[in-house]
Design brief:
metal-binding, alpha/beta, nine-stranded mixed β-sheet, 9 strands, single chain, TIM Barrel, 4 iron, 4 sulfur cluster binding
Amino acid sequence: MNYPVNEIFQTIQGEGYYTGTPSIFIRLQGCPIHCPWCDTKYTWTCLDKNKISSEEIIKKNTSNQQWSLMNVEQILLNIKIKKWTAKHIVITGGEPCIYNLLHLTETLEKKGFRCQIESSGTQLIQCSLNTWVTISPKKNQNTLLTAMLRSNEIKYPILKKEDLSYLDKILSMVKNKKKCYVSLQPISQNKEALEICIKTCIMKNWKLSIQLHKYILIK
């Protein structure tokens, strides 16, 4: 199976449960959600005019709309050529779950990698049983019950206090059905949102996710 890859790079995971973990990011092209605060708006559309070769993706060092169809063998070759050492792979986007990720995650695991998917929870999640699934529900979007039940982590973006009401609503969907690891993440390093997140995390005994990579200025 081929996947529309926007970029592949090695860095430190800056968000959620795996914050601080050396990671290889596979960013897929395409997203139907279009959040106004999105950091990766260049991944929203998958236009033929922006298609490039897999060799060009290997050399790509800027974030833009260019993408390439790649299979898992080409992705693994990319990692080998770069001589990357991280064993944690984050499949992100865009919205990666608009694609069937079962073959990708199972193959990467057979090669010794641990996989994590970052998704909005609005799509059917198709991946290996061992894949760590991080769901970031979005207000006014249709968060799927199946996605919530499959998730290992709920990483919820906050801009204002009213945003918490939707989180309460979707957490009620899985009440008593599974244990949820919850973290709150202030949008765009907003100071007011950060204060809301800190106060709520202390009150609820949740975790704070602060997008570490933005503070230490890495990709």
